Every structure is written in C-alpha cells, then in structure tokens.
C-alpha cells in the first residue's frame, strides 16, 4: 500500500477514506491507476477528479458507494458497468434486513478492496467472472442460518467468507478457541486468494516440483489430512518450517498461509517505505546502521530487500503495540524453513508478473 494525499489540501489519506477530513472534499479511488483522488460534482451529476492527468474525464461513483456506503471506488462515466471492478466480483451479499449485516458487509468489502489493490499492485492477474466465466475470481459473503453454518473457503475461483469474521467479538472468540495468534478479515481473504493462485499459477506452472519440494506433495488426500489435523493438532515442530500451526495441515494450506504472509509483508513494507521510515533493531548508540525503507518503484523488490526491511519493521511495530497494551502486531517468528517458502512465493509472483500478458491473452 502506498501513501495517498488529498490533491486539494495535501492532507494524508487512508485508502478507505470517502472524504478528506481536513478540507471536506469527497474522495474516490481510480483502480486502473491506483489513485485516491479528491472529486468535485459536475452539474450533470458526474464527478471530476482533481488528480493530475484526468482533465476532461468524467466519473460516476460505484453504485455500492453512492447507494450503499460500502465502497469508495469510481467508474468512468462512459462505462456500461454500474459497479466498480472490486464490487463486480462480489456475487452474493448477506441479507441486509438483518441487524449488523450491513456493517459486516462494509467491512468485508473494505478488506476485499485491499486484497484487489495489493494483487494488482504486484502485477498479478486478477481475472473476474466476466473475463473467465468458469475460473475467474468471485466472492460470496454469507451468514450462518438456523439450517446451515456458513463455511469460509475457496473452490474453483469462488471465495466464500462467513460474515461473522467481520464481528470483532466473534472473530476473537474463534481465534481463542482455535489457539491462533492472529486472525483478521484481510488475512482470511489473502489466505483464500492463495488457494486461487495455487490453481492458477502453481498447479499448472513450471515451478510445481519446486513447490512440492518445499511445501510437500499436494496430491495427498486433503480430507484425511484435515481430519488428522483436527484430531491430533499441528505438528509439534511447526515453528521450524511453517509460518503458522494451521499451515501443517496440508501442502495447500501451507502454501495459502505462506502466500498470505507474503502479501502482508509486501503491503506493510511498501507503506513503511512510502512513509520514509528508517528503522534499526540495535540499541541507541550502537555503531550498526538502520534500514532505510525506500519505497519501491513499481512492484519489483528483491526478496532479500523485502526481508531486510520486514525484520526491523516487525520488531518496531511489536514494540509500539506492546507499549499501549495491545498484542504483538506480527505475532510470528519466521524460521529459515518458512523464509525459504516465502522466497519461493516471491519467485512465483515474479514469474506471474512476467507472464501476465500471456495469461491475460489465454483468459
């Protein structure tokens, strides 16, 4: 994630903002350019952007922005779609007549937009069902019913998430019951996107044997592996080669957990670089120099650079969150085995970025 600023007054903005709190201008996100822009209403009901390079371009708010208040993305006025690129990928929303469902939906869509932004920023192919009706990426945000529990998961490009994950109380209860050290809506979406990209990039890609060499043979029976995990728990030595205990269930889950951690790393290091942070884990007065987190130009950064920035960043942020009584911001320690897997994910992403024109043509 990069740093955004209001084009009218220069105030810093969050990715999710719909209005500049300093000058009051309404805001909209232009997905094709990854630009959060101040906007002004035209007499004909369209909007104009104050961002450079968009003179004469007219915009509409995504319907989910204008009518539902769960989005902040823009659509070109001459686009036939009423929904923005992100909202078009949501196939099912919860029953909004029920208490709490609208707020849960808003939280889900907010996390999904961060996912879509991050994937696109890395040059990964984000293919929706309009582009690929069979295997394109699509989302369902659903709730438990008296007859059936909503299950979070992925199948053939469909990512389903139980909206209970958007309730901080329910999510914390699940995290505690499952003995997890970390659980967020964005983490879920990044994890499930890992399954999607396994199908799209790994299972039919040139690195499948490299992946199997590190993550294990994915052809083992998933149902058997899952039952064993829930009966016996994670491997006792999971800290030595996995990013999380859940990653020990099956190579597919190991990949998805590692993929999610990789996206966490990339996003956090990018915003730290955009903020111009310089960090060191050495005591004050030490002769050791810190790490300057320069923002990358585009999605390309070597894995060694990424890791060198990530280590002091996690230490610093854990110190900060502990200082105000919160749990660690990143409650994991990456072993050499986990780092090797993250490095391979980085290589797969680089391959996909290089092959993106060919992938887009095939789809």
Q: Mind telling me the C-alpha Rg?
A: 21 Å
Number of helices: 9
Strands ordered across the widest β-sheet = 3-4-5-6-7
Beta strand %:
5-15%
Shape from CA axes? Answer: globular
How many runs of DSSP E, i.e. beta strands? 13
- pLDDT < 50 runs, ≥5 residues: 358-363
**Strand count, sense and closure of the main sheet?**
5 strands, antiparallel
First-residue to last-residue Cα separation: 27 Å
Encode the helix/strand succession as letters.
EEEEEEHEEHEEEHHHHHEEHH
Structural class: alpha+beta
Mean pLDDT: 89
Helix content: 25-40%
Question: Would you mind describing this structure in some detail?
Answer:
It contains nine helices and 13 strands. With 363 residues, it is an alpha+beta fold. The strands form four sheets. A five-stranded antiparallel beta sheet has the order 3-4-5-6-7. A four-stranded mixed beta sheet has the order 8-9-11-10, covered by helices on one side.
Could you provide a short overview of the structure?
The protein has 363 residues and is an alpha+beta fold.
Describe the structure using short key phrases:
363 residues, alpha+beta, 2 domains, five-stranded antiparallel beta sheet, four-stranded mixed beta sheet, 9 helices, disordered C terminus
Question: What is the secondary structure topology, with strand pairs?
Answer:
Elements: E1 4-5, E2 12-13, E3 26-30, E4 35-41, E5 47-49, E6 58-61, H1 63-66, E7 74-76, E8 90-92, H2 101-121, E9 138-142, E10 153-155, E11 158-162, H3 168-177, H4 185-202, H5 208-215, H6 222-232, H7 251-274, E12 278-279, E13 291-292, H8 303-323, H9 336-362
Parallel strand pairs: 8-9, 9-11
Antiparallel strand pairs: 1-2, 3-4, 4-5, 5-6, 6-7, 10-11, 12-13
């Amino acid at each position: 994630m990069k740093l955004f600023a209001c084009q009218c007054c220069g105030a810093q903005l969050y990715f999710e903002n719909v209005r500049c709190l300093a000058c009051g201008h309404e805001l909209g996100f232009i997905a094709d350019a990854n630009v959060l822009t101040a906007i002004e209403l035209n007499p004909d009901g369209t909007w104009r952007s104050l961002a450079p390079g968009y003179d004469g371009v007219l915009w509409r708010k995504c319907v989910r922005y204008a009518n539902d208040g769960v989005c902040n993305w823009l659509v070109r006025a001459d686009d036939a779609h009423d929904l923005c690129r992100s909202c078009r990928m949501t196939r099912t929303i919860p029953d909004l007549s029920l208490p709490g469902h609208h707020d849960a939906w808003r939280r889900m869509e907010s996390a999904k937009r961060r996912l879509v932004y991050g994937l696109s920023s890395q040059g990964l192919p984000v293919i929706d069902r309009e582009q690929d009706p069979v295997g394109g990426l699509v989302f369902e945000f659903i709730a438990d019913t008296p007859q059936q529990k909503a299950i979070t998961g992925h199948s053939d490009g469909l990512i389903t998430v139980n909206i209970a994950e958007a309730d901080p109380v329910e999510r914390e209860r699940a995290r505690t019951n499952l003995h997890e050290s970390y659980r967020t809506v964005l983490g879920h979406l990044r994890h499930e996107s890992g399954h999607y990209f396994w199908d799209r990039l790994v299972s039919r890609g040139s690195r499948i044997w490299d992946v199997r060499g590190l993550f294990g043979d994915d052809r083992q029976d998933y149902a058997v592996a899952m039952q064993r995990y829930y009966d016996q728990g994670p491997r006792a030595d999971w800290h030595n080669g996995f990013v999380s205990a859940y990653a020990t269930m099956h190579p597919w889950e190991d990949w998805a957990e590692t993929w999610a951690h990789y996206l966490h790393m990339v996003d956090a290091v990018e915003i730290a670089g955009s903020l111009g942070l310089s960090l060191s884990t050495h005591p004050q007065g030490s002769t050791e120099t810190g790490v300057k987190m320069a923002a990358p130009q585009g999605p390309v950064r070597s894995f060694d650079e990424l890791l060198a920035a990530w280590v002091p960043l996690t230490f610093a942020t854990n110190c900060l969150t502990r200082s105000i009584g919160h749990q660690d911001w990143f409650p994991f320690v990456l072993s050499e085995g986990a780092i090797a897997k993250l490095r391979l994910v980085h290589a797969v992403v680089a391959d996909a970025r290089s092959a993106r024109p060919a992938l887009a043509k095939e789809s």
